[in-house]
Amino acid sequence: MIDLTENDQALLNGQGGDAVALAMRVLARSAALMGAERLLDITSAHIDGCLYHGQASLDFVERLVAGAGKVVVPTTLNVGSLDLIHPELFRGDAAVKAQAQRLMQAHLELGCESTFTCAPYQSHHRPRLGQQIAWAESNAIVFANSVLGARTNRYGDFMDLCAALTGRAPACGLHLAENRLGQVLFELQDFPADLAGRDIWFAALGLFAGKQVGTLIPVFSGLPLDSSEDELKALGAACASTGAVGMFHAVGITPEAPTLSDALGCRAPLQTVAISRAQLQRMRAALSRARPGDRLAAVSVGTPHFSLSEFEQLLALLAEEEAGPRIDFYVNTSRFILWQLEQCGQAQALRSRGITIVTDTCTYITPVMKQTRGLIMTNSGKWAHYAPGNIGVEVAFGSLRECVQSAVRGEVVLDAG
Amino acid sequence: MQADVAGTSWPAQAIVAGRGHGQALLLTEALSFWGGYDAVRGCVVESGHPQYGARLAGRVMLMERAKGSSSSSSVLAEAIRNGTGPAAIVMRERDLIVGLGCIVASELYGLHVPVVVVCEATWQALIGLGSAESSALHIHATLPGDCLIRVSPYSAHNGPSTTGASI
Questions:
Q1: Residue A333, by phi and psi: left (phi above 0), alpha (psi -120 to 50) or beta?
Q2: What is the pLDDT of residues A75-102, one digit of tens each?
Q3: In a shared domain, residues A81 and A153
Q4: Helix-, strand-, coil-residue percentages of chain A, each rounded to 5
Q5: Which among A99, A220, A302, A377 is least buried, having the fewest CB atoms inside 10 angstroms?
Q6: A·B CB contacts under 8 A
Q7: Residues B51-70: what's their mean pLDDT?
Q8: Of residues B9, B32, B47, B69, which has the active-site annotation?
Q9: B14 → chain A, closest CA residue
């Protein structure tokens, strides 16, 4: 059974109020479920409870608000179902809109910060190497563990908030060094080096690897040593869409994998998978039935939320075109990135080129897009994986460059080869 | 068929306490409830999933392991609240996201959907029953500890598939 400290026990017994008692009860039950022997202190939380998935999500938070709960560590919020800055974009049911808005508001009443982003690591909240945190949202979890070297398990809704209200999390899984070693080795041969169209290969690789490894930790060797944070973000998000991946290592790139033997902890991998460039191309082709020349309804990028450097790439790609997009072109990002874009005049430049910037939420989880019939193009592996089920669209899968070129022509344009 | 297995029982490890029974429903691939299950209509909506369209209500869901987004806990809790969730869950691996959906539904609504983990031999035996329309699985999980998965002849009049009463 789990060994609770005196303070944990006091909170469980209601000495911190009803909300904290409920939070501690859920934590203790979850710790037992995970086989943890104790709880440990965390230094930050990222909450994925703001998406309205029905009454249960709201009931839980309202119970905590009613029990006078407050977060005790810095706590960021994941996307909600609404763009609170541009609420007019919401095209769904009014009752759902009201519930979704209340859900976001209730989280603020618990003391969470109004970040509303799936990429909290793109703001001032950057946990450091070795720090214990309790983060939710599959892409944020993978990024924090892999790229930053912070330590979190794959927290879900509810549990993240329980950790934030108590400052505690079960000591098990990826919180412990011995469980962070790589298990399945992917040896990449001849990975495409052309920077401009390279994003798509990270996404395609991620979708493939996630499906292969399930809950194991993949190690990638042979990725370009100049792989950017945006590319690693795309890789991790895609991995975590097709698999229960909480962490990966990229040899020579991520902090816990300076060498292959560091990544594997001097053990042999459970499995080694060699991936040639031709295989990568086949993986990518299998993800989209779209052919060059197919008519497009819209483009959506920014899943996970676009970074400032991705916006710069987008502006550069738009500048190469004589005309702006002929179809709707959506970019999901956080309100903090939008404010920065507005300060430097880039937001206006993007809007004048016909780009719709969506904040606080994402185009595949909520009715924002005007046109969801027909083919929609994205460079996001995660979007490509989930959007068909969520909002019933057909997906074309291409790099950011291909997305821009396609949007300008209103039809699918793919690079040769 | 199944007269031979009625009355049989298999060992399981209780992960989330609860009590539920129903015909087995095997998910042959991992399902992410978020994006993969419609908690209002009560069916699998992940495109390309082998059990696309399957309904979990009243069934004992067999899923080897979980996958996907951490929002699945909410969708599962909501499905349980709506009565579109499974009556009980059997897995090969402990999974926090699935377990948590059940824990929260039990804390908020007093609907105690059990989650248990089984060994390979039991898993194979249960899979063998997968198509057995005429038998039902019964799970009564208490923590901490082990429990049994019992098999009985299936009848549509077995009563509510998940108990809201004492566990």
A1: beta
A2: 999 988 777 767 777 777 888 888 988 9
A3: yes
A4: 45, 15, 40
A5: A99
A6: 131
A7: 90
A8: B69
A9: A33
